[in-house]
């Protein structure tokens, strides 16, 4: 079963249990979650963050992924990670959660 992102209320659920709530606008984090939801939660998506300056895309993607993982509840059964090249984001279930 895939996660479910509800952008209107800012919650990410897994197996019907909320594991993340974004109270702030968190534009870049929402862009990632919206892209996963829109695409049916594939294991990888291309970087959906709009480029701006002065921060480069890779740094902004890293900041957003860090923020997502930090916002996950302590018992969340998943995590997000960059692909190492700044081109996209992976998500995966954790085996022991």
Describe the structure.
- It is a single chain.
- This protein has 97 residues and is α+β, with helices and mostly antiparallel strands.
- The chain has one domain (4-93).
- Helix content is 28%, strand content 27%.
- The protein contains two helices and six strands.
- The protein has helices spanning 27-38, 57-71; strands at 4-6, 11-14, 17-21, 44-46, 78-82, 88-93.
- The strands form two sheets. Strands 1-2-3 form a three-stranded antiparallel beta sheet. Strands 4-6-5 form a three-stranded antiparallel beta sheet.
- It is globular.
Key phrases:
97 residues; three-stranded antiparallel β-sheet; 2 helices; 27% strand; globular
């Amino acid at each position: 079963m895939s996660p479910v992102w509800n952008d209107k209320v800012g919650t990410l659920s897994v197996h019907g249990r909320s594991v993340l709530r974004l109270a702030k606008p968190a534009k870049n984090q929402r862009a990632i979650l919206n892209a996963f939801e829109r695409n049916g939660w594939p294991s990888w998506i291309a970087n959906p963050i709009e480029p701006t300056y002065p921060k480069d895309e890779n740094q902004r993607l890293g900041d957003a992924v860090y923020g997502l993982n930090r916002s996950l509840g302590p018992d969340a059964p998943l995590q997000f990670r960059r692909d190492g090249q700044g081109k996209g984001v992976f998500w995966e279930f954790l085996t022991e959660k």
